Amino acid sequence: MTTHPTRTAAVAAVDVVKVYGRGDTAVRALDGVSVGFGRGRFTAIMGPSGSGKSTLMHCLAGLDTATSGQVLLGGTDLTRQSDKVLTRVRRERIGFVFQSFNLLPQLTAEQNVTLPLDLAGRDVDRELLDHLVGVLGLGDRLAHRPSELSGGQQQRVALARALVSRPEVVFADEPTGNLDSRSGAEVLGFLSTCVRTLGQTVVMVTHDPVAAGYADRVVLLADGRIAGDLDRPDGATISAALRDLAGAR
Ligand SMILES: Nc1ncnc2c1ncn2[C@@H]1O[C@H](COP(=O)(O)OP(=O)(O)OP(=O)(O)O)[C@@H](O)[C@H]1O
C-alpha cells in the first residue's frame, strides 16, 4: 500500500473546501484542494488574483477554518481544534513572515526576534540565534530599532523571528512585496539558505515569478483548485505556466 503524500507532509490540505458567505453571494474560494508540503522544502503558491492563494495559506496556518476537508499539521487535524488550541498551535508550531514586516517599533531588532519565545516562556536557543544572525547579516544591527533599519533589514529581522523557534512550518505571505528588487533578492536568498541549512519547511504565497524561482516547488492555483505543480522551475517556466493559466480563463 502506498502512503498518501499528504499524510507524510509537514502540512497538508485534504479535499479542503472554503466557502465565504451564503446563498446567492456565496464564494467558493477553495473547491476541493488536496496538497501536501514536504518537510524541509521551500514551496511557492502562485495563481491569478482571486484564485484562493491567501485562503489556502490561512487555512493551512490555522488562521481561517475550512468549510469541509482536513488540514493536517504533523499529526494534528486543525479543522477539529478549538480557537484556543489553534492560537497555541500558531504560537508554538508555526512561523509567519508578512509583506509588512510587523515588527514592534519600540523594541530592538534582537528583542523583536526573541519576543515570541519570551512571551511563550521558552528559552532562546542562542546557538540557533547566532547562526541566524550570521546568515542574515544582522550582527551589527541587533541593538537598532526598526525605524533605524532598511526595509530589507527589517524583513531579515522578521525572518529571524519566524525561524528562531524552529517552527514546523514558516508561512510567508508576499515577503518581498514591500522591498526593492535587490533587497527582495537578498531576503529570498537568505530564506533559501535557511531552508537548506536548517531543514526548515517554508510555504510562500507570491505573485512574483522571480521570487517563486527561489523555491524548490511551485504549486499553482486557479479558481480554488490545484492547476499545476512544478518541480524546481526557473522564472521563465513559471511565467509561462502563469500565462497559460491566465489564457485558460
Ligand atoms: N473574507 C472574505 N469574504 C468573502 N469573500 C472572500 C473573503 N476572502 C476572500 N474572498 C474571496 O475568495 C476568493 C479567493 O480569495 P483569495 O484572497 O484567497 O485569493 P488570492 O489568490 O489570494 O488573491 P490575490 O492574489 O488577489 O491576493 C476571491 O474571490 C475573494 O474575493
UniProtKB/TrEMBL annotation:
GO molecular function annotation: aspartic-type endopeptidase activity; ATP binding; ATP hydrolysis activity; transmembrane transporter activity
Tell me which SUPFAM superfamilies the record gives.
Answer: P-loop containing nucleoside triphosphate hydrolases
Domain (ABC transporter) ranges: 11-248
Pfam families, from UniProt? ABC_tran (PF00005)
This protein's superkingdom?
Answer: Bacteria
**Gene3D superfamilies xrefs:** P-loop containing nucleotide triphosphate hydrolases
Q: What is this protein called?
A: Putative ABC transport system ATP-binding protein
CDD domains, alphabetized: ABC_MJ0796_LolCDE_FtsE
Q: Which InterPro entries match?
A: AAA+_ATPase (IPR003593), ABC_transporter-like_ATP-bd (IPR003439), ABC_transporter-like_CS (IPR017871), ABC_transpr_LolD-like (IPR015854), MacB-like_ATP-bd (IPR017911), P-loop_NTPase (IPR027417), Peptidase_A2_cat (IPR001995)
Q: Which GO terms describe its biological process?
A: proteolysis
What is the phylogenetic placement of the source species in the record? Bacteria, Bacillati, Actinomycetota, Actinomycetes, Micromonosporales
Q: For the Peptidase A2 domain, which residue ranges apply? A: 73-124
Query: Mind naming one GO cellular-component term on file for this protein?
Result: plasma membrane
Q: Which UniProt keywords apply?
A: ATP-binding, Nucleotide-binding, Transport
